[in-house]
Write a structure and sequence with these properties.
Layout: H1 3-23, E1 27-34, H2 41-57, E2 62-64, H3 78-81, H4 89-101, E3 104-106, E4 110-114, E5 117-125, E6 131-136, E7 142-145, E8 149-152, E9 164-168, E10 171-175, H5 184-192, E11 197-201, H6 208-224, E12 227-231, E13 247-249, E14 255-258, E15 264-271, H7 273-281, H8 284-287
Parallel strand pairs: 1-2, 2-3, 10-11, 11-12
Antiparallel strand pairs: 1-15, 3-5, 4-5, 5-6, 7-8, 9-10, 12-13, 13-14
């Protein structure tokens, strides 16, 4: 590396640290990494690691990868591409990337092999490279739309049985994967657990994407007065064509940033003061008629 390049990287790193310190009490900068996914797992992982490095250089505290970022989204291939967590190749790469870049990483999702079952699983890594959360997709994507799409994840995947969150500083973040976003009760429980943000690595298709992608993301944000991020693979010609359009929505339902269908990264500064202001101005949490209705996490009694 030339001396000038090294000095430039050091300057960027110092600027990043100052930004993170000054904004950490109000929020943080997040990267949404909408990546091309190929049939080459090693290439997919290497590409993700490079984009994570760039996210760090752009001042991000948190980076989010897409659903199935290391493998084709194809039920016939999930077992072939599956790995153990956290000992598999992809997890080791994400752990090292989190540590070397000193950032939080939501590792999209990968096919996980566990007790001879395959799950669609999201991992979360802290700046020390530790695995701090794991979410196995709860709701499997089994749909049949005549003239549109027929897809049945349950042919190859098992469903997860828990809701999962992690802490980023003082902010609590709830996890889901793609089809999980359609189930408002799940998001409502995350709100009851005190989540400030919801993250759904996702891969909507060319039928449901134009109709429901933005609508569902904005609904979950407004319903729960929280930031919501959805991160898709880029659109490529494959067995399953993703809609793309990764986005972040604020608690008012405003789309802060939205990708196109192409391979691209988004960097967004999130200010959680806006969320607090909305919750004070429209205090739905305290106005719910729990004498008439409620939402419960039956497993954890919340």
């Amino acid at each position: 590396m030339f001396a000038g390049q090294k000095l430039l990287q050091q300057s960027i790193s110092l600027f990043t640290q100052i930004r993170m310190v000054s904004s950490s009490s109000r929020g943080f900068r997040v990267a949404l990494l909408q990546l091309n996914v190929t049939a080459d797992k090693l290439k997919n992982v290497a590409n993700a690691v490079e984009h994570l490095k760039q996210a760090k250089l752009n001042g991000c505290t948190l980076a989010i990868l897409p659903e199935c970022f290391n493998s084709p989204y194809n039920t016939a291939l999930f077992r072939e591409y599956s790995e153990v967590i956290p000992g598999g190749y992809t997890c080791k790469a994400l752990s090292q990337a989190a540590k070397s870049n000193e950032m939080y990483i939501v590792g999209g999702s990968i096919p996980e092999i566990c007790d001879d079952k395959v799950y669609n699983t999201c991992t979360v890594w802290d700046p020390n490279g530790n695995l701090i959360a794991k979410h196995q997709k709860v709701h499997l994507f089994d749909i049949n739309i005549p003239g549109g799409i027929c897809f049945k994840e349950s042919d190859a995947l098992a469903a997860g049985n828990s809701l999962n969150t992690f802490q980023l500083g003082k902010f609590k973040i709830g996890l889901g994967i793609c089809y999980d976003i359609r189930f408002a009760e799940m998001a409502a429980i995350y709100r009851k657990q005190g989540c400030d943000m919801l993250i759904y690595p996702s891969a909507f298709n060319m039928t449901t994407g134009p109709l429901h992608w933005s609508l569902l993301t904005r609904c979950r944000a407004v319903d729960n007065q929280a930031f919501v991020a959805v991160v898709s693979p880029a659109r490529v010609n494959s067995n399953y064509v993703a809609w793309g359009h990764s986005m972040v929505v604020d608690p008012w339902g405003n789309i802060l940033e939205e990708a196109t269908e192409k391979d691209m990264d988004l960097y967004i500064d999130l200010n959680f003061d806006a969320r607090e202001n909305m919750r004070q101005q429209i205090p739905t949490e305290n106005q719910r008629r729990t004498d008439l209705y409620d939402t419960f996490d039956l497993k954890n009694k919340v």
